[in-house]
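for the record, two folds in this file. i put them one after another cuz i was lazy. first one right below, seq on top, structure tokens after. the second one comes after a little note so u can tell where it starts
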Amino acid sequence: MNLGSKSGKLRITKIEAQKRHPKRVSIYLDGRFALGIDGQVAQEMGLRQDLLLSQRQLEKVILAEQKSKAKNYALDFIGYRARSIWEVRVRLKKRDHCQEVIDQVIEELIHSGLLDDLQFAARWAQGRMATKPLGEHLLRRELRLKGISDEIVEKTVAETFQQISPRELAVDMLQTRRKRYLELDRRKARQRMAAFLLRRGFSREVVWEAVDQVTNDKN
């Protein structure tokens, strides 16, 4: 926004609350409407009637307003369910926020503890294991698709499988589905069991150990 005055500054001639959005205010410069911003932003920036604004000061006000919008959206986004840092960053980029604003918002959310990839990964793993159990390979893949770092992925996978081994989990999953395989001949049943476990992200070694245990076939 260009001030376009000879002095290089414009005077705030009026600040009034917006009728449709009471938490926002309209800023008038030299008698003309210039922009609408969040009331809290106006207060934090020290805006008041008769204040003179330079181009640089006005740009800071605009940036603060953009940051406020981005942060409010991010808070709504993570309020619906836990999100990874990468997910929030991508969503803000899709809303055309500039990199400077995105970086500031992400940094503040991390500092306040509202964004934490380690906690997010642990919750994601716990939720998946409770509702739709999966093997190590698939859990790793899902976490990486959420933008989680390799270090956190490995830590999360290790902690997830401390309580139950991949083999025990695979056996339990087959036991709950055992009725599906009763009418099949042994070879076909084993193939179906193996295919199911492979789709759920278990290693081939774990898959065949589990299939052998369930079918009592150690050959």
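(here's the note) second protein begins now
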Amino acid sequence: MIFSRLQLTLFTIVTLLLILLSYFYIDKTVSLYFIEHAQTYKAFGKTVSKLGESHWYIGIALIGFFYYKFIKTNELYKQRFLFLLYVNLFSGIISVIAKMLIGRLRPWKLENGGDGFGFLISQNPDFSLLENINYQISMTLQDSTHYTSFPSGHTTTSVSVFTFMMILFPKQYYIWIPITLLGVSARILANDHFISDILAGMLLGVLSTLFIYSKMKDKIEKNY
């Protein structure tokens, strides 16, 4: 799974446009639907969301790395597990930084008739820019979970791993695609993210993995 520069550029532009479209016209409506039907979807979404928790993949990567370095020496497999490790660490760090800087309210703020929607920095239109920045920092430090919706970290992880698998095992796409779609959609069912958060996580996951791949291509494809 290797994009040409043109394909990657088009993918990025289209995804960014879809993020904007979703934010202004789709996010709120979809989230309100799943809030109203939480008894039907939320528990399932929370359970399936575990597919997007990065510690599973970091753990697998570390076990694989140490196994092929110290027990059954294989440089190719060692590098591939390092690739998986770097992909999860890099995409995860970028995701966390973006979440803290952007400060988007979670869909939870729409529950019980609430009208919380958008970004912390835009919640007080009467504030000056400096006051809004101070407000965002203060609220994020107090309770970051409520204000770190964008991008979706679980989606970033899921799509990073998906891209990793498509690079190394593209013929099994019929396995990777449904598993990834299930994990990604679960974040909406669980009412933890808006659709635009999911799209942003997808973009970040793909770009992060392809960046690491560009640095490790020779090591993970070479036959030792």
